[in-house]
Amino acid sequence: MKLNRLVVGVAAVAGSVLLAVPAYAATGQVDGNITVSGSSCSWTNATTSDVPPNTLTIDHTTVKPSCSGSITASLTNDPQVTFDDSAGTVSAPEVDVNGTVLGITCSYKVTNVKYSRQGTGRAYTGGPFTANLSSGGGLCPSTETVNSASLTFH
């Protein structure tokens, strides 16, 4: 009888300890699109560190854009995204991208990026934004205009 009470007691303590451990944040996904100088790049199912409305980061290694025209693009940092549901916005302090045309790679940085919610879901659009050259050769323009960008979190 004492053994049974001991087993029940140990099981109760173990259960309460396991339930007291905080759950890790669930990862989410994001689709996106960006248009620059008439070329458009889009991606689907990139991984995020959490789900909205929690602040999250977008894992740049999972953003695999497909681009129109002769351009290729890549995200080169993990942007931190903050949601403001009362204002219907999402913002990122910095987004770094590489663009390659005809074998020439230019790196750009966009700061203080802000998107506005479309409808009641988690779709956001923004732009135009100014992207400033952060590295690249003399053939790279010192700035590029990001005409539009969109993010859809799921």
How would you describe this structure in keywords?
154 residues, mainly beta, eleven-stranded antiparallel beta sheet, 1 helix
**Which whole number gives the mean pLDDT?**
86
Could you say which structural class the secondary elements and strand pairing correspond to? mainly beta
The tally of strands reads 11
Flag low-confidence runs.
1-23
- The rough form would be described as globular
End-to-end C-alpha gap: 53 Å
Total helical segments: 1
What order do the helices and strands follow?
Answer: HEEEEEEEEEEE
What's the multimeric state?
A: single chain
* Overall radius of gyration: 22 Å
The tally of domains stands at 1
Main sheet attributes: strand count, strand direction, barrel closure: 11 strands, antiparallel
Instruction: Classify the helix fraction into a percent range.
Output: 10-25%
Beta-strand percent range: over 45%
